[in-house]
Amino acid sequence: MNTPNGNRTRRCGVALLWAVVILAVLGVMMATAAWQFAAARRGLAARHNRLQAQWLARSGCELAAARLLADPADYAGEVVEPVPDGQVRITVEKDKADTFRVRCEARYPVGDNAAAMLTVRRTATRRGDGDNARIELAVPDNPGDEAKAP
User: H helices within the chain, ranges in order?
Assistant: First the structure.
């Protein structure tokens, strides 16, 4: 025999079970969405670090060109920090009479496990003398010379 209270208790139990199931599904969906947002944020930060390292390496080449234009005999390179947490290591080797091999290794951010590192190699040729001197930066013969490292 069914009593009104026994049937009602069963319905409350089923409703409570459905509420727990729905809350569990919503919890899993929210955790998945949070993970996706965090992964996208990490990807965006890594892209930002790579772009910053690329521009730092390019700026290192420009700095080397300016130094070679001013005094090509005594310039062998340097380590500079043009922006906070960004480091560029410039190495210059004399190749021929007025030709130099420039290597710029940029790292951003310095001291971070997720730091991006990029190396750019260029050939710098000094043309002219005195006030008419200019520097031409060219990509080396092997274009795959630019390399990224984590």
Answer: 4-70
Tokens of residue 82, six digits: 């043009």
Query: Per-residue pLDDT tens for 78-109?
Result: 999 999 999 999 999 998 888 999 999 999 99
How does DSSP classify residue 132?
A: G
Joined together, the tokens standing for residue 105 give: 């290794």
Query: For the chain, what are the domain ranges?
Result: 4-149
Cβ-count burial of 61 within 10 angstroms (0-12 exposed, 13-18 middle, 19+ buried)? buried
| Phi and psi angles of residue 109, each rounded to the nearest 5 degrees, phi first | -80, 145
Distance of CA 48 to the CA centre of its chain: 5
Q: What spatial distance separates the first Cα and last Cα of the chain, rounded to whole Å?
A: 73
Interatomic CA distance for residues 11 and 18, integer angstroms = 11
What does the alpha-carbon distance between residue 49 and residue 86 come to, in Å, rounded to a whole number? 10
Question: Which one-letter DSSP state was computed for residue 30?
Answer: H
Amino acid at 83: V
